[in-house]
Specification:
single chain; 196 residues; alpha+beta; Muramoyl-pentapeptide Carboxypeptidase, domain 2; 5 helices; 37% helix; binds zinc ion
Length: 196
C-alpha cells in the first residue's frame, strides 16, 4: 500500500515536472529582440543582393577598387558592389561634384552587368558606379549608372571593336543615357545609365 502510494506520488510529480518543462520551453520560444540590423524583406532587395554577389564573384567583371582620380574613399565600383552584396546601400563620394551619402543600386543595371559577361561573353572593367565625381546632376549619384573603360582586355576608344556592341546592349536592356567615344568627355569609357 505504501509503495503504491509512493509510485502514485512519483508519477504525479513526474507529470508535474513535465508540465513545468513544457511551459518553460514554450516561454523560451517567445520572440527575442535582435541586436543585429534587420535587412529589408522587400523582394527586390533580396534580388539586388543576389545580383551583386554574382557580380562580385564574376571572373569576367573587374571592379576598380579606387576612383579614377586615384582616391580611395570606400565609394569605388568595388566597394559599391561589395556593399550591395552584403545587403547595404552604396556609398557616394564626397569630393568635387559628388553629393556624398548613400544610394541603392538599380537592379536593371546589375542584371545588365551580368548579361554583358554571361550572355554576351565580354570581360570588362568597371571604373565607377555610385562613387566618383561626375557632372552635377549625374545619374551615377542615383545608383543607376555604370562606367566601363576596358572591354576584352582593350581600352575603350575608337580602336576598340567591342564598345559599340556594349552600348547597343545597354540600350536594348533599358539604358536611356548611353555615351561613349564620340560623345563629349566619354572618349575613354562607355557610360550606361537607366532612368532614375
Ligand atoms: Zn558615367
Amino acid at each position: 500500500m505504501k509503495s503504491l502510494k509512493n509510485t502514485l506520488l512519483r508519477s504525479i510529480l513526474a507529470s508535474l515536472s513535465l508540465i513545468t518543462v513544457i511551459s518553460l520551453s514554450s516561454c523560451g520560444t517567445s520572440p527575442k529582440k535582435k541586436s543585429t540590423p534587420v535587412k529589408s524583406s522587400n523582394p527586390s532587395m533580396g534580388s539586388r543582393q543576389a545580383l551583386a554577389k554574382k557580380i562580385l564573384a564574376h571572373p569576367k567583371i573587374t571592379l576598380l577598387k579606387k576612383q579614377v582620380s586615384g582616391r580611395v574613399d570606400g565609394a569605388s565600383a568595388y566597394h559599391n558592389i561589395a556593399s550591395a552584396a552584403r545587403g547595404y546601400s552604396a556609398k557616394r563620394s564626397y569630393y568635387g561634384n559628388a553629393p556624398g551619402g548613400y544610394t541603392r543600386l538599380n537592379t536593371k543595371m546589375l542584371r545588365t552587368m551580368l548579361y554583358l559577361a554571361n550572355t554576351k561573353g565580354y570581360s570588362y572593367r568597371v571604373t565607377s558606379i555610385a562613387g566618383g565625381s561626375h557632372s552635377r546632376r549625374s545619374r551615377h549619384y542615383n545608383g543607376v549608372a555604370v562606367d566601363i573603360d576596358m572591354i576584352n582586355g582593350r581600352k575603350v576608344g575608337y580602336g576598340n571593336p567591342y564598345y559599340r556592341s556594349v552600348m547597343r546592349t545597354g540600350r536594348a536592356k533599358g539604358a536611356t543615357e548611353v555615351l561613349g567615344p564620340g560623345d563629349r568627355a566619354h572618349s575613354s569609357h562607355v557610360h550606361l545609365a537607366w532612368p532614375r
